[in-house]
Amino acid sequence: MYKLHTTCRACGTGNPVLKTLKQSTAAGTVYDLAASLVPVFDLGPMPLANDFCGPDDERAGYAPLKVMLCPNCGLAQLSVVVSPQVLYRNYPYVTSNSATMRKHFADIRYDIGEEAGDFKGVLEIGSNDGTLMLFLQEHGAKCIGIDPATNLTEIANKRGAYSLGTMFDAYSADLIVTTHGKPDVIIGRHVFAHVDNWKSFVRCLELVSAAHTLICLEVPYVIDQLDSVSWDQVYHEHLSYVSVRAVDSLLHGTALRLHKVKHYGIHGGSIMLMLRHRESEEPVNESVAKFIEQENASADRWAAFSIEARRRIDQLASFIRARATEGKMVVGYGASAKSTQWLNACKLHKSEVRFVCDNTPQKQYKTCPGSEIPVADEGALTRELPDYAVCFAWNFAEEIIAKEKIFHDKGGKWVIPVPQIKVL
Ligand code: DWN
User: Fold this and answer.
1) What are the pLDDT digits (tens) for 174-189?
2) Nearest Cα to Cα of residue 322 among 408, 414, 388, 393
3) Protein residue with least CA distance to atom 22, ligand 1
């Protein structure tokens, strides 16, 4: 189900073939490629975060969940890579159509337009159920999507978002160019951190893009994750915890370079890495150097993160157990990948968290990975009126709290786990 990962996917550190090699970068840094990746955060064996199963489904099982830091370029990455065929075979996560997400789509469309003008041809990598493509099409773009989750590309195609149900690789990149030409804009939202072979991914981007193409990769930003100790975003799908510095290091010697970096609040803090071909005449935006200069994702920061994560896991587990002992009813809200992390790290059982409600049909009436806590529909919150609801979709907390006013009005309390555990 998984293979070990020992070589930094950005700069090659830890590669046994390069044992004695040192590499100098344009910035004058000398990398010792014989060094090894250093463990900085270890959750032990954990279930796959989106392995929501019905009674007849077979569980994928557990895999080690350990973050390793590259001593050279500073990229944090998991020590194992779970096979994408296992992770995405019947993927239940669908892009949110919430007001928060729609606002984000409008923001990124504006920011991309600032760089790419009145862009038309769009390739979306990791296009999911086509929600972003449909939004861009409403605004005049012509989109093609690609995603290995065929259960979702089927939905996208039915909705009018033309999508290929396959991995983005050299073969599909070539097919896209032959059938559709090279796009003006390539967008990959929350897909780059999920990719194992970055070098090959970059080669495919080179292949599918033209000199004028703007490539936009949105990823959770490691600095936000460290700042808010959102340890629950560490799971098997997120192979890398991305910094601008690490991507800069990856792009050395390729046809692509960083062009601009934009920061957004979505998913607890994300950045859009805008890439262009080196031959592009557009000058590099000053944001690139600024981000790199200010980034601190050192081993010390990860050590502090690890200690604080453990403290918060204990804190939430004790809080929920104490409420359950008092006879209070506690539920979860949002069967997010993050919910799997909390429920398992806190070792919670369905006698303590009765159910997790969620608006995704692909997750409802299944059970959560590891904890086997049932997933209910969203309406269960106001039907059951629990005493406490833990908002595992804390990145949408504001919108959810406003939407579920009845729950709070009738005395229910929200527990928000990130960026600090608080009860509202
Ligand atoms: O990269 C990834 C990110 C972007 O999304 C993936 N690897 C997996 C996924 O992570 P997640 O599951 O933690 O994402 P969300 O978007 O935080 O999940 C929120 C969950 O809450 C979804 O299952 C939908 C649900 N929800 C709900 O039931 N009612 C969300 C909202 C806004 C709501 O009103």
Assistant:
1) 999 999 999 999 999 9
2) 388
3) 336
